[in-house]
Amino acid sequence: MCGIVGYFGKRKASEILVDGLRRMEYRGYDSAGVACLHDGVIGLVKNPGKIKGLREKVDGSDLDSMQHAHLGIGHTRWATHGAPNEVNAHPHLDASGHFVMVHNGIIENYKEIKAGLSQHGIECVSETDSEVLVQLIAYCYKDNLEKAVSEALKKVKGTYGIVVLTDKEPGKLVAARCGSPIVIGLGAEETLIASDASAIIPHTRDAMYLEDYDMAVITADGVKMFDLQHAPISREVTEMDWDIDAAEKGEYAHFMLKEMFEQPSAIRNAIRGRLDFEMGTAILSGLDFSPRDTAQINRVLVVGCGTSMNAGMVGEYAIEEMAGIPAEVEQAAEFRYRNPIVTPLDLVVAISQSGETADTLAAVREAKHKGAVVAGLCNVVGSTIARETGRGIYLHAGPEIGVASTKAFTCQVAVLLMMALKLARGRRMPRHQGEELCRWIERLPELVEKVLAQNEAIKAVAEKYADKQNAFFIGRGYLYPVALEGALKLKEISYIHAEGYHAAELKHGPIALLEETTPIVALLNNIPGKEKTMGNAEECKARKAPVIAVVTEGDEATAEGFDDMIVVPDCPPCIAPIPTVVALQLLSYHIAAARGCEIDQPRNLAKSVTVE
Ligand code: F6R
Prior knowledge:
Blueprint: E1 3-8, H1 13-23, E2 31-38, E3 41-48, H2 51-58, H3 62-65, E4 71-77, E5 92-93, E6 99-104, H4 110-119, H5 130-140, H6 145-154, E7 160-166, E8 173-178, E9 183-187, E10 190-194, E11 206-209, E12 214-219, E13 222-227, E14 232-233, E15 238-239, H7 255-261, H8 263-271, E16 275-276, E17 281-282, H9 291-296, E18 299-304, H10 306-323, E19 327-331, H11 332-337, E20 346-352, H12 358-369, E21 373-378, H13 384-389, E22 392-394, H14 407-425, H15 431-442, H16 444-452, H17 455-464, E23 470-475, H18 480-494, E24 497-502, E25 520-523, H19 530-542, E26 547-552, E27 564-568, H20 577-594
Parallel strand pairs: 18-19, 18-20, 20-21, 21-22, 23-24, 23-25, 25-26, 26-27
Antiparallel strand pairs: 1-4, 1-10, 2-3, 2-4, 5-6, 6-7, 7-8, 8-12, 9-10, 9-11, 11-15, 12-13, 13-14, 16-17
Helix pairs in contact: 1-2, 4-5, 5-6, 8-14, 8-16, 10-14, 10-18, 14-15, 14-20, 16-20, 17-20, 18-20
Bound molecules: fructose -6-phosphate (F6R).
The site of fructose -6-phosphate has 15 residues, from helix 10 and helix 18.
């Protein structure tokens, strides 16, 4: 989704800004731009399309000749209001040309503000909701930028992360946030501002995260923070622990491929220090419930979106089965609006890789409002959901740059299994069973390595199906969420229409679509329900649909009569989602690669969905 970067320091601003935007490309965008200020002049370059195009436009432009422009702002835009063209791209200038701003989020009352500005003769040139905000700031300006910003923000409904500058006060940047992340990097004699840590980590590890309704004023004297009433506030400086190499794709053709191959080490990091073999339980300091607290949990509600919701469904099954606590997974956007029944005895677990997904964040707020105990399961340290939930568990999977989520899913499932184990041991699971589960969780990296070792074999299967237009994934029990996730992976990166179904559900409608060009990926692992799924796969075969059978090692006979086979290691049902999903990730990746798709940045998608 949109990305913001800002720079104030001694180096050439335009270069740092364009490089920062390149590092945020993975978030998804369709136009980009930068603005710098030098000698009282604002230079602005915008470009629909990729950063490469922006860079070419900047080279040789006024901005490039601004060798001594030491402050500026940049933006990657993922279109919401108005087409992805140059006029709608950020940064936006106000009508007087003295103020320039970048904005993430949505100004919900922009039409009202626009009409009001129009009555004062101020007309917007773009179709965006964002432009009205810079016009409003300019309108509110008397002699102080931060005062104008806070005046304008008080009139705004919606979400924003902004950075603004004006040639009227050339040594100043003002940033503010409400619902859209802003992180400030404190370097040696320089300050960086971004919506995403990846634009900052090459320059500094020291960061401050803005809270909602915070405003930061950056000048040569450093960073000063205020609330919207201008009362000074302070925010803690934290150290960002991500390694710069983790945000580069190195020898891999794509970030997605790299991240799939990182899964053994990512899972190791997610489980490190969290398994207590002696007591047969998990140590999750973010869930510091006593057995008495655990006994009082009435229900576990898991909320998330997309891949995170699919992981949550595995958690739902594990928590119910192991701990005997009623558990439900719910799409976060539904949860936030449908007035769900939530009580103080409910534990709500919000799952989000980015920790910034708007719907998941709103679900957290709704659950807190209704008094539930809320825990976050996030990857990005310091992200809004991690901070707002207050308690929770970090994945420690490292940065996930590929838009299609891979290592986050497997680490989410690993952490949910540990959560189920902890809850189960506080209730009804005997120690020896807990110990056994600890041993299987410890073996997860090795099981994933076994699947990754079959990369070439899976590639060969994938290439046979690369020309297809439709596909179905079917599974039961713990493999039902894996079928959903397998289909999601395939559709988002290959643009093949793919649907995940419970194996039994196919004949209640979708079977009408089967024909010889519609492959079925049948999850036939040796777990309870296998025979029934086999029957469903036979039904597909009888309708001429080719079947790719995913089977357990040692049980290859199950694949006889089907068209292709992918083998995954033998493990208990609750463990099976992890190695199985890795096989499906590889399958999707190779199909997409064979089709020549833009794997890391699929069309229309954003890594972090910060709007509803
Ligand atoms: C799919 C994918 C998305 C995300 C979803 C939630 O590969 O990445 O479906 O899972 O947008 O994102 P987070 O986990 O950041 O809340």
